[in-house]
Amino acid sequence: MSRTYSTTRRIKIIFFIFALLMIAGMCIFRWIEHVGYVQAFAEASQKTAAILGSEAQPPNYPGFTYLRKATYSCMGITNTVHEYQHELTGMEFVLIPGGTFMMGSTVLEPERGVDEAQHEVTVSPFLISKTEVTQAMWYKVMRSHPSSFQGLHLPVESITWYEAMSFCEKAGLTLPTEAQWEFSCRAWTQTPFNLGPNITINQVNYNGCYPYLGTHEELYRLKTVPVASLPNINGYGLFDTHGNVWEWCLDWYNDYPTKPTVDPKGPNSGSRKVVRGGSWNYAALDSRSAERCHWGPDFRSDFVGFRVCNRE
Ligand SMILES: [Ca+2]
Ligand SMILES: [Ca+2]
User: Fold this and answer.
1) What is the distance in A from the centroid of ligand 2 to the CA of 285?
2) Which of 46, 193, 227, 265 has its CA 20 to 30 A from that of 235?
3) pTM for the structure as a whole
């Protein structure tokens, strides 16, 4: 009896040690992976800063007037960019210098989605609007008032992906690709938000009943707010990349590629278009820089709008 018992016990101990070793091994692997991502970000950031620093003359973009050189700092990262005004709409754009970054969330990010696997992406320079498209801008181009919450400086919403594309066609613009959206949102940060590891309801218009990693109730505004009215400017001078309205992207939704890509535009076909950035009625976790959501291109709601980019 005692021999049987001690054999069983020995097996249990061996199994326990084996399990401990497995867990320790996984932790070390995840840690090494995380450190690798941090280094990749830092190297890419330095390269891009060097490229921009060597560029004396701002490039010309047809349909845009050059405004100024501007410097923005966020999370200890400083970016100097050129800014332009779109002549037809009057909207201000930032020239995002482009570069190579790790798109997606790190394995250590709380509340991350399974579709946010980190992968290396290179984006070429592009112009992106500093704010979501407002109702005033929409009216200027489309001569209609489709939004549920009415106000000229509120973001336009209740427009389908097709209607957003129709606005773009008429204005000589386009939607950002998902990669362009995340690159300009992050501005080289790798924290869950471009403002840091967390956000507050005073900075971002999300559903305050569901703060990120929080248990206490916060303010819930129940509506959109005027664009650029909350202190959430990011390291590239963009407002409301977190919250207010979700933003349509150009891409069909699908799993990310696993290999490094250059200027990815998503799959050739699909049934749902990517939206990014969360909104006034979604939890703070949905505002994370890496968060991906998707709806059919004919979906319409008072929490989905868009921002715009220049055409190539
Ligand atoms: Ca937004
Ligand atoms: Ca998601």
Assistant:
1) 9
2) 265
3) 0.85
